[in-house]
Write a structure and sequence with these properties.
Blueprint: H1 8-39, H2 45-72, H3 81-87, H4 99-126, H5 130-154
Helix pairs in contact: 1-2, 1-3, 1-4, 4-5
């Protein structure tokens, strides 16, 4: 990451803020996916129970990856539930969603993440941090594939 004299702190702060938004979102999403994994019912139970588990396991990996990147660039990741809920663009699940509503909620959350990842990639590129930009681009690519597959699952 190229650091401009006098602007290093600003660059790290901006990038840390963008990454911390992702940390918050992925933590809220992790809990929501785990909730859906436990509470899903109906004819799609077996398919969705397994899928939600795979997705919450992926979310846990994303949290760790993002938090460690924040530390690597000299920032500090947020790390409390209160901070996650305050910072996140996502909302918790209610626990009363139908199976299809669960899938649609996760798809909508993934769309929010994609939009915010685009913004975070721009912040990383502005800071000349190719490593972070590349990491975020890979996450975005995976989410776009999930969106496509989840949309196909709920198609009428």
């Amino acid at each position: 990451m190229t650091q401009v004299k006098g602007n290093v702190t600003s660059s790290v702060e901006d990038l840390s803020a963008a990454l911390n938004l992702q940390v918050a979102n992925w933590n809220v999403l992790y809990v929501k996916l785990q909730q859906f994994h436990w509470l899903v019912k109906g004819p799609h139970f077996f398919t969705l129970h397994e899928k939600f588990q795979a997705l919450y396991e992926e979310a846990a990996l994303r949290v760790d990856e993002l938090a460690e990147r924040i530390l690597a660039i000299g920032g500090r990741p947020i790390s409390t539930m209160r901070d996650y809920l305050t910072a996140s663009s996502l909302t918790e699940g209610s626990g009363s969603e139908s199976a299809i509503e669960m899938v649609r909620a996760i798809t909508a959350d993934y769309r929010v993440l994609v939009t915010e990842l685009k913004q975070a990639i721009t912040v990383a590129e502005t800071a000349d941090d190719e490593v972070t930009a590349d990491m975020l681009l890979a996450i975005k690519e995976g989410l776009e594939k999930h969106i496509w597959m989840l949309d196909a699952f709920t198609a009428q």
